[in-house]
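Figure-free illustration: sequence to structure, shown twice.
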Amino acid sequence: RPGPTGDTVTVTTDQGVMLQAELIVAPREGPRTLKLAQVIRNGQVLREFALGGKPQATITLADTPGKSSWYILRVVASDGDQAYTNPIWVEVR
């Protein structure tokens, strides 16, 4: 269910989730590129993706949280600017 602070997905205990994000850096004062992306679950870095200075990238990660959790994505541009997503809440039943 969507909300102002992210979406909620409900899964069963043995079900996994597939996280996928399309990343595109918007030029500001000249061209910028993507340095890295981190998938963060419950405040801990689950996986880090080196993006190698590309202007766009797609990242995909499968995970089985085992318990109710939240995920966010942190993206760092080559100039150090950062962006964060709203959380995705995964409710495990």
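We now fold a second protein in the same way, so the two outputs can be compared directly.
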Amino acid sequence: MAGMKHVALHDADILELIVEHLAPGKECTSEAQRQPISALARVSKAFHIPATKALWARLPSLHHLLLLLPEFDTMYRAYRTEHPFGDLKDVRLSERVSPATWARFRNRAAAVRHLSQGRFSDVLVLHDESWSYLARLLGDHGPLFPSLRTVSGWQPTTSCEDLRLLACPLLQSVAIYHAFTDQGWAGSCPLAVQDVLINAPGLTDLKLVSCSDDFFTHITPEALAQLRSLWFEVDQPTDCAPREWYPNAAALRVLSALPALEHLRVELALDYNDTEFMGFGSLITLCILDSGCGDATWFLERCSSPRLRELTIDLTNLYFQEFEWEDMHPLCVAIAGHTPQLRELQIFFGFFGEMPEQIPDMLLTAAHPLFALRHLTTLSLWLSYGEFILSDSVLEAFAEAWPALVSLEICFSTFRPYTPGGLPRPHPASVTLRSFHALSRHCPHLQVLHIPHLYVPPEDCYGSVNVDGAEHSPGHQLWKMAICRAFIVDAHACAQVLHHIFPHLDVGHSRAAYLRSHDACQEDHFFRTAWLNTLDALEGCQTSTSNAELSYHDASQCESSGR
């Protein structure tokens, strides 16, 4: 037996399977994975090669690779002795490296598939001259990282020599932070990105964060033509970020003509003067971060893609210009008019300026243009502060307009507080169980439901479970539900009705969905208790049903055996 174990540990396929079990994909994505794999690499010769490959495949910082160079290792140890809590910066490497050391360095670099710059301080570890030094050591012997697939969180040096050394034929995705075309850069960074695109024909995913507004105007359209996915956003709030970090008119014109671009995430703070274009004809998914209030509406009117299926609009970054109720209808008109084949729509609101005292018809009127999107499967409206008021008639209209819905989420993070003292009162037009019957009938594929209000008086539960006299869809597959503010008088009776309408609700996932969306605010304790108690009661109903079905099955088997 011992001999068989010994033979097995020399079988490369078996070793690979064991390492694959500890690090799926043969790369470490977390520190918890790195520890057991590192132990395998240290203590076992048999596991050394596959475990080492897994350790180096995802490099969390370039620092680990640089320690293989004796000159850098010596500098680092000396610096840490004098500055235990400091960070080594601006290292200039110049010493000769032995062939054996360089071979070890190249061997480790060849295993790297995913590279991150690590902590922000790691950005400044190497001086520009050190990257030129590495380029000289490399010579004409192929890419420095021949297996590299992704580069994340990378801030290039002034010369951008580091970007050129990252290029390889297998490279697929690059994320670059703080790359500019002025302040002494002399266009070197866009040209370096252009070289990377040319030398990495498989690079189709590019992310730029807080870069010059005219960045793409310095790159030839031929080099950009291979891009399928593009991010251009800012990592600071609108009131802090320079306007020069948002894409300008010229950059948008360049991007609008890219033939293969299918996925775009763009942060806008536009000057509408001389910003005319029409394009983006290949987009499938689009995310707009609107920092100017109205930029999303303006952009959609210039987006001509008939293939657009997923649209996300983020309005949470508005500071100086508040989003008003009057802005909702034009936005919905633009969405419906320019995305006729849309399947998924998400809109994130910060808060509405001068939020009026609402009536349900306000949301129904604003969203009515969206009823033209008959293929819509996902609708999400998220509000950071405040609330929408819904009613049975609003949800019934939604259900009739979008029969293909799979997910409907209208959720809030923080509510307007109600007046303390005594029990809170439900809104007079709140949602009742009647709307659940409508959703069950009209939306047979609905699986996720998250709504702001639910009012369940005793008379809606007792007697007939079908409160509106219409049939619901038996065996409906809805499995996750959350209610932001539930006013439920009898949790057990309400749970029985829910179990009857939606027999496949998953209590665990429903509870988790609610808790993720709402902090334990004291003012919402009443609603929190009401909904969580209802879920607990629903779990009891499901257990009773399962036990009854099991008893019936056992009785049937006994009867069959007796015959």
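Summary for the second example: The mean pLDDT is 84.
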